[in-house]
């Protein structure tokens, strides 16, 4: 292997503006380290605990709720989540009055405050947590109940490195639908785990959908599904069948328990804030048509899990984490800055609607940022770098059909982010020693780490694939 990596002439992202998918030349010199600081080597922390981490009911694993702090309440009221909606309090009661943790702007990233009814509050480190539900401990499974304006995506990214985190941003009847289904484990709501659905758009060799997503994500997962004789009703829609109408019809007919879509995510029009927010991150089909609610009217999620590999499929932020890494006047940077300005920090409408449906989705897994074609394969040896993701969505979810939690299943994706952050720091130190090629390695590793870290779970992290008969 050479000491230098192959630099692409240009970068492509899985975003669709309505007129095209942005791509821009990769400049000969790019920033690599100064825009973001990571404390130490970010990695999966600590040795395995002596209990099964899949068992969130175990007191040394645990489940907890994360809320914005509220200075208008007493310590006891904050510990009891008195400011949470009735549905959230029902969930807390059902889960044996699980710990409530609070996020405050004044706390450093990676810390949560825990209040008690009869003792002094504690600021606890989530970067090196003592897992469990006892005093001074942080549960391994955490549900953030807040919008990304109230509790930023950055906290979820940080918590993902050492805990299993989901987010819920619903109110009113939509929140009741989800919580009631969660408490009852989707009783009476049937989706078929033997009928996974893969919908993969391919816009040709010059597009990221052909180069990486259709082959490295959807294609690799389909190979696993196709080789499992138990999944007799599996279905793949690609090529001419990867339309929004075919997707809607397949969902209604087969009611799959796992839905995997790879495509561009809608990120336009940037000059119409309302229109952008209404279709932000929605899958764009083979005809460049955007998946809308009308194509899904005949389908109730009924406890399915949906993985969407598309730009902004989970939402957007008010400042892109890629800001400053690419020239500000480039097409990709202009797009990301435009999304941040027009949409701000928000959850995308598709997962919000599906999680709040009358028969809701169990979980939606997607990105808050785009994926670059450069970051899904190793530029030195050409190895596709999606095996960890594919293992999470197949090997872990379907492992002996033991109903493994989605948060647990995805943990190695976030470990991979930590590994690449550590490798990025190594490259930065090599830059200081004038090692050839390290500027490119530093940029590449930082982009890969950010790509993995901005994958998020929407919904409760304890949910599992529907039971197999």
Tell me about this structure.
The chain is of the alpha/beta class and 469 residues long. It folds into two domains: 10-38 and 189-412 and 451-459; 63-183, no CATH class. The protein is 30% helix and 16% strand. The protein has 13 helices and 19 strands. It has helices at residues 75-79, 86-94, 153-160, 172-183, 208-226, 244-254, 273-279, 331-343, 349-355, 387-396, 406-409, 411-432, 438-453; strands at 10-12, 15-16, 23-25, 63-68, 100-103, 111-114, 122-125, 141-145, 164-168, 197-200, 235-238, 258-262, 264-266, 283-284, 305-309, 315-316, 346-347, 363-367, 455-459. A six-stranded mixed β-sheet has the order 7-6-5-4-8-9. α5 (208-226) links the parallel β10 (197-200) and β11 (235-238).
